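A quick word before the example. In earlier lectures we treated sequence and structure as two separate objects. From today on, think of them as two lines of the same record. Here is S-adenosyl-L-methionine-dependent methyltransferase written that way.
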Amino acid sequence: MSVTESVYDYKYENGRRYHAYSEGKYPVPNDEVEKDRLDLQHHAFRLTLDGALYRAPIPKDVQHVLDVGTGTGIWAIEFADEHPSAQVIGTDLSPIQPTEVPPNCSFLIDDFENDWVFRQPFDYIHTRAMVAAMKDWPRFLEQAYNNLRPGGYLELQELTFPPICTDPTVTSEISPLLRWSDYFTEAAAKINIDAQSPLKVGPFLREAGFVNIHAKIYKWPVGRWAKGDKMKLLGKFVYEDLMDWLPSSALGLFTRVLKWTHEEVELFLATVRKEMREEKHRHFYANA
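And the structure line, produced from the sequence above:
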């Protein structure tokens, strides 16, 4: 859809590019490195679901679909390809989606924290990996509920903090990765983002009016230590995702909120990368 030139007036900081629309709300870059990471993460989610894009029991001929926080638009595009009956809208703060898309897919530059003004209710609303962006889950869920037709579905595919070590004796005192998670959680809290919020949305869903609420937790190994071809491949995806997510997550938050210098962030992240490369006996995983 048409956008004003101002949304392309990207902001540059610490060698990374950030969104201009609702400037500063989302502390993660929108540059090519981050776009590649998001597309890689998309493949990790699809592999987790054995190739599927979703778990909700929606009909194959679903009509109206909304993808909130669409990022590169890869999920919305693939969903539109697989469901030609659907009109799919993807929303995001950044116009980083491709211009050549299926005829039943479109993108809207929008801030999901503002009032929603869609023309018709949706049959299905999808979000993914919003943990670093969501400041007000109750308001978001209320708006999602009010924009779903009766019998429609909302699906939240999320990641949780902190990562978990298979060795319970490993703490943040000795693990740079767990220390990074602590710093991220601390910084996010100071801008009203709860990094552990995906584990707490059940009551919010019920308060918003949702029924038949189902949750399923998947383990994402970080690295190829897990058994089985599928889990080894997933672990490879997750490891590469994490390596790119470290600077994406830290450069904005740690410098703006924790007041670290760029150099301090890079030196610290080097210790995390070193641990992930060398500490073979420490096996980490994330919950999705």
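Notice the following. The first strand starts at residue 11 and ends at 13. We will return to this example when we discuss secondary structure assignment.
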